[in-house]
Amino acid sequence: MADELQSNGSGDTNDAAPGNTSETTAAESTAAESNSDESARSESSEDAGCTPASPASEGCSEMVPEPESPSWQSLATAELVERRDALQTEIQELSQRKQQLEQDLRQSFAGQSDAIARRVKGFQEYLGGALQDLAQSVESLELVVQPMVVQPSPLDHQNSNSNEPSVENVPTPAIADTFKPDEELIRASLQGFLEQPDFYAGPWKLRRSLDGSDVALLEDWFFNQGGRGAQASRGSRPRNVLLASGLIAIIGELYGDQFQTLVLAGQPERLGDWRRGLQDCLGLGREDFGPNSGIVLFDRADALVERADRLEERGEVPLILIDAAERAVDIPVLQFPLWLAFAAQPDELLIDDDLL
């Protein structure tokens, strides 16, 4: 029984072996065919110029482009961008330099702003008066030539009047007696200047007070010099302007609107000091300074003399005031009836020159 089972089992095994061998051979043949097909497709794709990565279903429809070198447009654009960046950097540096220069200028002029402003203001005021005077001079020019008139010689008059009785010469009054008729009014005004100042007085009235030495100087100028002469400076320009303001107030009481004050100073800064001082002491305004008003400022003596001549031709009286900084009085000024020159000491002249 056991022998039969063994024989049956060996028979089954032998029967199954041929069947497995046939199945293995078929699988191997199928794999070989597929490999051959794939190798053929790969060779065909390589012959067509396609890469192995191309899909088998899509074939080799497109070619992959090779990278090209940068074009001239891109190079030009890059160069323009670099130039723009360089210009922007340079502009920023110049802007910073400009701001630094402006800051340095403001710092350098900060300490001198007051002095520069005073000089500019004084020159502006002087220039305005000078231009007004020039306009007045142009208006008064005679554009029509006047006919020449020849007057007879004094010798002819002497010969014609030789037979007539001689007329007695009338003595000329002394210069010191010029203000004798008005001595009481002048002395009363001078005494009033010694009292408390009237800060609310009307225009052309002295709003400040004088001391005894100032009053004595004015008395000497009125009653000893007859309104023509030099007096010692009071030590500074503001003191001289104060004294001149008192003189202008008295002359205004005597002559009314028939006189004009002419101030001579050689620098615009000095004329500016005179203008401000007279405005403060006499309560004047800007309209009171000019060729057609009460006070005219000059920096040259020849222009002052010309103006004084025109005033005398119109029957008015010029009052000439000469600043202490003027070293000398021009000879033509001496012909006028009213003039006062302030004589400065050497140290005062040196201080004034240092300030300028």
Q: Can you tell me about this structure?
A:
The protein has 356 residues and is of the alpha/beta class. Strands 1-5-4-2-3 form a five-stranded parallel sheet, with helices on both faces. The protein has a domain at 121-129 and 178-355: Rossmann fold. Mean pLDDT is 75; it is low at 1-29, 42-62 and 162-173. It starts with a helix and ends with a helix. Helix content is 56%, strand content 8%.
Low-confidence stretches: 1-29, 42-62, 162-173
Placed side by side, the strands forming the largest sheet appear as 1-5-4-2-3
* Major beta-sheet overview: 5 strands, parallel
Distance between the termini: 157 Å
Query: Strand share of the residues?
Result: 5-15%
| Rg (C-alpha, Å) | 58 Å
Overall pLDDT score: 75
Structural class: alpha/beta
CATH architecture of the domain at 121-129 and 178-355: 3-Layer(aba) Sandwich
The helix content is 55-70%
Query: What's the helix-strand series?
Result: HHHHHHEHEHEHEEH
CATH topology label of the domain at 121-129 and 178-355: Rossmann fold
The total of helices stands at: 10
CATH class of the domain at 121-129 and 178-355: Alpha Beta
Shape, per Cα inertia axes: elongated
List how many beta strands DSSP finds.
Answer: 5
